[in-house]
Amino acid sequence: MSILRFMVVSFLAMLASGLPADLKKAPASTKPGLVKIFDGKIDLGDFSPPIPIPGGQRIVAKVNGGTLTGKFNADIQAGISVIDLVDNGQAIVNNVRSFGTTTDGQPFLIDESGLGSADDDFARIILSVGGSYTGLANSFLFTEATLSSDRKTVSTTAYQTVDR
To answer: pTM of the prediction?
Structure first.
């Protein structure tokens, strides 16, 4: 008996015997909503010369500082951005790690990892922070970031997913 035929026969047998009670319940709303967490401006230092890697090249830039304002308010003190340019520079894999202090004095660390183009990308954020921001540290955050034409600053907006 083929695997596909086995799966179909098993599924039909399950239907004939009735669905388990927990599958008969209507699912809770799974439609996520978005809440803006911050707008940010990040200042970059000089970019390294391209470093050859398999499939492309890697560029490293120092994060000199920045400001995040909104539901999460903080000053970035420093960090590093590692950008992998692949497919002849048409696609990027961006990894950023930055740290600083919130306006209420809490230290924080942001790990950002995403994909995009040479101009902008979408990334997942993992925020390590305590105090009044602990709830953000335990949620799914993502950001859209755009590099300025002079390659000196990044504008970013971060969102939190929430149930509606």
So the answer is: 0.76
How does pLDDT run across 77-119, given as a tens digit for each residue? 999 999 998 877 777 888 999 999 999 999 999 999 998 876 6
Per-residue model confidence as pLDDT tens digits over 112-141: 999 887 667 889 999 999 999 998 888 999
For residues 46 and 41, what is the distance between their CA atoms, to the nearest angstrom?
16
Q: What is the spatial distance between Cα 147 and Cα 1, in angstroms, rounded to a whole number?
A: 56
